[in-house]
């Protein structure tokens, strides 16, 4: 079992990276945000799952162990294969998945390409009680959650995935001034500037 991988990025596209380690280049399927941030020539470390089939050995890689664990949980759901599970993790963060399951809300999963209404409902039902949102106390001076959520929603409306939108809004809020943290338009401008005109969506 290959449980982790570290090496130099040789190639990266929208869903796959090739990492050289020990003189061997390994193809690893990854969530969109990992693929988009991978830089050819730089080091990358991934937590991995090796899927064995009769005709193939396929590696799937994630930036942290929480994503890897959710990937494995998704594979336990009837009708969800590795590519569909990866699609969910490209579209939603670990916390967004846990929150949707806890709230018995299958809508976020129905918005993922390749996940139909029946499968979305099965994800919610079969993962119930198995995943929990991480509870973290906000640091002093942290922006109101509502402001970050509104900025994330605006980014989704502009074409970014829920995962990218949530992470970008939260990151911008950490660096924002107090005034920007309290203003949705100001925080949205900061977030859009951070994403840049060439940022990949979806």
Descriptive report:
This protein is an alpha+beta fold. The chain folds into three domains: 4-62, OB fold (Dihydrolipoamide Acetyltransferase, E2P) (Beta Barrel), CATH 2.40.50; 65-127, Orthogonal Bundle (DNA polymerase, domain 1); 145-195. The chain is built from ten helices and five strands; from the N terminus they run E-E-E-H-E-E-H-H-H-H-H-H-H-H-H. The chain has a five-stranded mixed beta barrel. Helix 2 (65-75) crosses helix 3, helix 7 crosses helix 8 (162-175) and helix 8 (162-175) crosses helix 10. Mean pLDDT is 87; it is low at 136-141.
Main sheet: strands, sense, barrel: 5 strands, mixed, barrel
How many angstroms does the end-to-end distance come to? 31 Å
Helix count equals 10
Per DSSP, what share of the residues sits in E-state strands of 2 or more residues?
A: 15-25%
The H-level CATH homologous superfamily of the largest domain, spelled out, is 5' to 3' exonuclease, C-terminal subdomain
SSE arrangement:
Elements: E1 4-12, E2 16-21, E3 24-29, H1 32-37, E4 43-53, E5 56-62, H2 65-75, H3 82-91, H4 94-102, H5 107-110, H6 117-127, H7 145-157, H8 162-175, H9 178-181, H10 184-195
Parallel strand pairs: 3-5
Antiparallel strand pairs: 1-2, 1-4, 2-3, 4-5
Helix pairs in contact: 2-3, 7-8, 7-10, 8-10
């Amino acid at each position: 079992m290959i449980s982790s991988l570290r090496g130099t990025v040789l190639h990266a596209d929208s869903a796959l990276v090739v990492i050289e380690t020990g003189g061997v280049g390994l193809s690893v399927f990854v969530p969109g945000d990992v693929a988009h941030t991978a830089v050819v020539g730089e080091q990358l470390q991934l937590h991995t799952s090796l899927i064995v089939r009769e005709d193939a050995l396929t590696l799937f890689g994630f930036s942290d162990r929480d994503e890897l664990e959710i990937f494995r949980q998704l594979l336990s759901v009837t009708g969800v294969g590795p590519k569909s599970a990866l699609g969910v993790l490209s579209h939603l963060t670990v916390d967004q998945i846990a929150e949707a399951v806890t709230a018995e809300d299958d809508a976020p999963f129905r918005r993922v390409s390749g996940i139909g209404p029946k499968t979305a409902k099965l994800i919610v039902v079969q993962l119930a009680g198995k995943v929990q949102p991480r509870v973290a106390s906000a640091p002093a001076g942290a922006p109101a959650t509502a402001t970050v959520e509104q900025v994330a929603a605006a980014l989704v409306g502009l074409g970014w995935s829920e995962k990218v939108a949530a992470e970008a809004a939260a990151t911008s809020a950490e660096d924002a001034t107090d005034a920007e943290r309290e203003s949705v338009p100001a925080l949205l401008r900061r977030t859009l500037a951070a994403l840049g005109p060439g940022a990949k969506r979806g």
